[in-house]
Structures are given as structure tokens and as C-alpha cells.
Amino acid sequence: MAIGIDDATDRDWMVIMEAQKLAAWARLGPEQQSRADWGAVAEQAFERVNRIRDEEGSPNDAFVARSDEGEMAGYVWVMEESADAAGLRRAVVMDLFVAEAFRGQGLEKRLLRVAEDWGKIRGCVKVGVTVAAHHEEARQLYESQGYSTQSLDLGKAL
Predict the structure, then answer these.
(1) Sign of the CA dihedral 39, 11, 81, 131?
(2) Which of 56, 68, 88, 156 is deepest in the core (most CB within 10 A)?
(3) What is the H or E stretch that residue 75 is in?
């Protein structure tokens, strides 16, 4: 089965928006989830996506992988941001998702390359991604593609 990758449509963005709510919840981890309110987390995720996608927000795009039958196999959402005091731009992978039925076929790597190419075309000098500490599978994917730890965000429950 051939998988093509194209720009996200408005309908695709609706799916991506829902996925962002679920991803925000998953990033919390079990301990934080036990103390969090799903509705508040979902609303914050919705507002964050809209701020980024707004005309005044950061340049960003999403790319969707589809099977020949039109089924969404996965997507990558990437944005541009200023990376440092020198104003050097970097691409940031905001989300990378591949449906279970399409995993293990190299689609994750293809989508990641699309995001990296998007950044290169825009003049970005670096690409980054944030991965939840408990998401070992995602971290392994990125490391297999040459990503390395640049900083650590430590936290403590109060």
C-alpha cells in the first residue's frame, strides 16, 4: 500500500486539534493526570494550537500521510521559532503521530524528514522536539534519526 504525504486540509486540522488535546493529557503522565482536570487540559491545548496557528502566531504547517484509500495514516506538525539571542531560527516538531496500523513501516521517519525539509526551506539552522520523559518509544525514534538531548526540563510536584 502506497502512502502519500500532502499539506493538511481544514478537515485534517480538526483531527490534529483533537489529537493535541489527547497528547497534552498523555504528556502529564499518570501522577499528574490523577490531579488534573481533563476539561482544563483540553481547553489549554485548544487555545495553544489556535495561538500558534493564528495569523499573528509562528509560521507553521502540518503534513498528512494518507493511504491510497484516503485513510489518514499519520501527520507531522512543525513550526518555526527563534532559537537564541542571535535570532537563529529553528524548526520545532510540535507533534508527530502515526496510526497503529501504519507503524513500523518507516512512515514516522518519512514524516520527520518532511518536517526537517520544511525547516531547511525556511532557513532554519536546527530542528528540535520535546518528548515527555516517560515516552521512551518516541525518544528512541528521534535519537535514531540523529536527535540528541539539548536541555532537560526538571520539575517537582508541590
Answers:
(1) positive
(2) 88
(3) strand 72-82
pTM of this prediction? 0.85
Residue 137 belongs to some domain of the structure: yes
CATH label of the domain that carries residue 134: 3.40.630.30
Helices 136-144 & 107-121 angle (0-180, nearest 10): 60
Residue 69 backbone phi and psi in degrees, to 5: -85, 0
Q: Report if residue 155 sits inside a domain.
A: no
60 occurs within a structural domain: yes
| Among 109, 103, 94, residue whose Cα is nearest residue 142 | 109
Residue 152, domain member (yes or no): no
**CB-based contacts of 124, cutoff 8 Å, min separation 6:** 80, 89, 90, 91
Pairing of strands 126-129, 89-98: parallel
Q: What total number of domains does the chain contain?
A: 1
